[in-house]
Design a protein that fits this description.
Strand order of the largest sheet: 1-2
Number of strands: 2
Number of domains: 2
Radius of gyration: 25 Å
Helix content: over 70%
Shape: globular
CATH superfamily of the largest domain: MetI-like
Structural class: mainly alpha
CATH topology of the largest domain: MetI-like fold
Oligomer: single chain
CATH architecture of the largest domain: Orthogonal Bundle
Order of helices and strands: HEEHHHHHHHHHHH
């Protein structure tokens, strides 16, 4: 009996030691690649630091924050980012929901369509930007202008015209990331309980009322997750914008990610760039709270 008790004690003790030992490497990696850079970014945001001058960081308090809040270019890029996020989210959610509702029905070739949805997601954003820049939006070889010419429609310079450049980037992002929303919503739709739909069918509810009062409320949790993930990605969007327009023409497509890049890697003002990054992080927290309130599920 004593031996059995000792073995159990030994096993519990080893579990307490071995478990954290397996987790420790991951914790170290997370600390090194996430927490330390964040703390260093926060530290630099309160200091004046530039690689050009090659001087040690000098504490200036909220000086960097005051500078960016007094910078009209920062507010322009912030406004442009809000427009970019709102338009993308609206377009991708509407398309994603429509396609998801179609693909959960027993339609022909739905399995093949679901497989095709993965293709845009496995293409890297840089490659996506190059494909759309060279093959879709090009004035000389672009497929889009060729299709427009067939119907005698205007053929704009998509990436060099201030009126169309941001729209071109929005369409590119929509092509790549709408499938993610479709697959997430399909998973949500297929996991919904059947009982509410059977009750609605017995009560004679129309398809629209069933969607409004049953499907959409039950989809709120997964919709919240999708909206948050896409919002964070869109706020820090850089690669496709840089490949397609580099923030141009002029500053017509200079969203926050490109504006931060210019401050950090062209002007080498790391203190001010760190302050912008902190503001973006705070903005993400605010939007998270707002979306949770909007998509809150009330029983």
């Amino acid at each position: 009996m004593a031996d059995l008790t000792a073995k159990r004690f030994y096993r519990k003790s080893m579990n307490k030691i071995v478990g954290p030992a397996f987790i420790l490497p991951a914790q170290v990696v997370i600390t090194v690649v996430t927490i330390f850079p964040f703390l260093y970014m926060l530290y630099l945001s309160f200091h004046r630091y530039s690689l050009v001058r090659r001087i040690a960081p000098r504490f200036i308090g909220f000086g960097n924050y005051i500078t960016i809040f007094n910078d009209a270019l920062f507010w322009n890029s912030l406004t442009r980012t809000f427009l970019f996020v709102a338009t993308n989210l609206t377009l991708q959610l509407l398309l994603g929901l429509g396609v998801a509702l179609l693909l959960v029905q027993k339609v022909k070739f739905r399995k093949g369509f679901r497989t095709l949805l993965i293709v845009p997601l496995v293409v890297t954003p840089i490659v996506t930007g190059l494909i759309f820049k060279l093959l879709i939006y090009s004035g000389e070889f672009g497929i889009l202008n060729y299709l427009l010419s067939i119907f005698n429609l205007p053929q704009p310079s998509w990436l060099t015209n201030r009126s169309y450049a941001l729209l071109a980037i929005i369409l590119t992002d929509t092509w790549q990331w709408t499938p993610f929303i479709v697959m997430a919503l399909i998973a949500g739709l297929e996991s919904l309980p059947k009982e509410p739909y059977e009750a609605a069918r017995i009560d004679g509810a129309s398809a629209w009322k069933t969607f409004v009062y049953i499907t959409f409320p039950l989809l709120r949790p997964i919709t919240l997750v999708v909206v948050l993930l896409r919002t964070f990605d869109l706020i820090r969007e850089f690669d496709k914008v840089f490949i397609l327009t580099e923030g141009g023409p002029g500053s017509a497509t200079e969203v926050l990610g490109v504006f931060l890049y210019r401050i950090a890697f062209k002007l080498f003002n790391y203190g001010e760039a760190s302050a912008i990054a902190v503001v973006v992080l705070i903005l993400c927290f605010i939007l998270t709270f707002a979306f949770k309130r909007v998509f809150a599920y009330h029983k």
